[in-house]
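Entry 12.
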Amino acid sequence: MSSAESLGPGRIEGRELEQEMRSSFLDYAMSVIVSRALPDVRDGLKPVHRRILYAMQEGGLQPNRPRVKSASVVGDVMKNYHPHGDSAIYDTLVRMAQTFSMRYPLIDPQGNFGNVDDYPAAAMRYTEARLARIATELLRDIDADTVDFVPNYDERRREPSVLPSRFPNLLVNGSSGIAVGMATNIPPHNLSEVIDGIVAMIDDPEINVERLSKHVKGPDFPTGGIILGREGIREAYRSGRGRVVMRARAHIEELRGGKSAIIVSELPYGVKKGGDAGVIKKIAELANDKVLHEVSDLADHSDRSGMRIQIELKREAIPQVVLNKLYKHTSLQTTFGYNAVALVDGVPRTLSLLELVRHYLDFQRRVVTRRSKFELRRAEERAHILQGYLTALDNLDEVVTLIRNAADTDEARTGLQERFELTEIQAQAILDLRLARLTGLARKEIEQESGFRVRVVKIAALYDRNAHGHTPSLHHSWKTFFLCEIEGGEARGSCETDGVDFFDPDDLPPMSIGRCTPGQVLRMRQHFLRPEMPTDFD
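Predicted 3D structure (tokens):
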């Protein structure tokens, strides 16, 4: 017996180690890219996000229903759709509920889901969750054959390959992820602005990036802040890659005793306020190291009404200079690396703003077309049954006699089909008809419902238009999306037209320098000097 035969049934193939490593690594890389790290351009979701939302939809966790324990949601997702660690599923669930991570959270939470101070969420056995109202728009019409379903990991169930996504979630909530050899980092945008951009593309299919940017003005981060300059945004929207400089929103307040303080009310997206990696600890370290020697006190006065970090300065400090040093040395000014990589037909691609909107619009046309086809099919099936009901009601006595004299159900069904030229579906529907439906009032209701023929004609016309690329319902539904369904809200951030880098000597206010004692100089703002005061204090 050879050594190969002793290993049992099967075949052993000899392969080069280099070839095996290359093949196995490419399989792993594509698995990470397609099934884990990158979002789909159509619904803006990774598989784990999609599975959580769909499992919650299946569990009936609607916005008008009570919340359930997060552990229950995680268990259902892991059991039915996502056979991975529970911590990965719960971390995803938590992020979808955080108002400082998502511009429009998809989960309505109850309990401690973490905060901007970098405190983690409570254990899943303590927190509760249900779908947010806007998440139901991602799932709307999923039962109307709008998307394809695929088998789950053990082929016991089926799960959607993509959600209908009745709003452009990829642009609205953004996405980030690191795959093998590539990464994505898409910022969130204001929902109202994105919808305006989509409507503009529907009105003008030949629109370019410049005109589209008049509607989608720039990222809208959930934590607010200021974007410095528009050139980075323009480049990102044109090429899919860019550099967006973000700055905290801060102002200067005068305190008692001639002192002043810098008040920070909004932080750049992704910057933590507290914790070991927080901006407060960094400012304190810089003050202790004499890099920010002008700082005399640092306090966090944040509460439910909003963020307030108070940086108290010494009397002789110049607030604007200190603020510029804060921008230079801390994360009060940082950069968002825009990198719009998403899956298009399962292939990762870097997409411009125009391509992101166009791919989403094409997908929605397919969704509306499939929904119209589904509604047409359902209406035609109902029309078929109602026609059989009307035939039975017109010959009620004969139908009752035929059924009563039949030996069994099969004979009654066959007799109805032969006597009244009915189909098997119509005959079965008549046999299943309750006696209460034979009253005069029920007859009138059936006759009124038989007016569905007009609806069938309308749906058929709509489907025909959708199938040929004309989608009139898209324009109307998106045009009124916020007025009727969801408030998009005002943009939380703002954009300054002229970009400003970190510290610039030109930012210094007008100063006068005087010599007071040997080895020392005195620096004063010019508006503090009286005209008769000399600038040389010997």
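Annotation: The CA atoms of residues 101 and 332 lie 17 Å apart. Residues 371-475 form a domain with the Topoisomerase; domain 3 fold (CATH 1.10.268.10).
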